[in-house]
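Predict the 3D structure for this chain.
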Amino acid sequence: MAAKKGSGKEARRAELGAAVQRALMVRGLEGLRLRDIAEEAGVTPAAVLYYGDLDGLVHETYQQAIERYSRGREEAADGFADARDKLRACIDNGVATGPDDALTRLLFEYWPRCLRDAKAAALDSALTERQIAVYSAILVLGEAQGHFVLPDPPRLLAANFVAMEDGYQMEVLAGRRTRTEVISALNSYARAVTGHDPGVRT
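Done. Predicted structure below.
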């Protein structure tokens, strides 16, 4: 019975997390109210508070979004042994599909809070470091496999990949660039710093 109760509570927390995400997409972080989450979840504001205050719920939702985004990219790259294929998969899985890409939008909705909230900034730094680690490992492997010729340290090049992605993501979310255009730009950078074009399948 205890297991069932715990399972039910976790299911309700997951449903509430989904409601937080939906409310964020509609209201934005700065305009978000506890009442908005309650309406999305179909419960009272008091019921929402049982699981935490507004800041805590948003923070938890952001943590979960980071994990989903990072894990998806890591698993995509892990599906290949050849660093060239890994790099292509890493780029493909890091770019938003368009303005309605909910997961990427959620990450960027939260970003402004990092400028004045140390807890949020720590999460954002963890996200950045995790993405840099994926790229860096691929670059090191590609050099070891003889596929890449790197002009600078792998971590520096990896950080540049992530910085470019972050800038371009805003363009995609704003509808000013397409996913295809951004992938082409990242492939161009990859070609310049590795000698390999990720757009060409091995």
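The first helix runs from residue 2 to 27.
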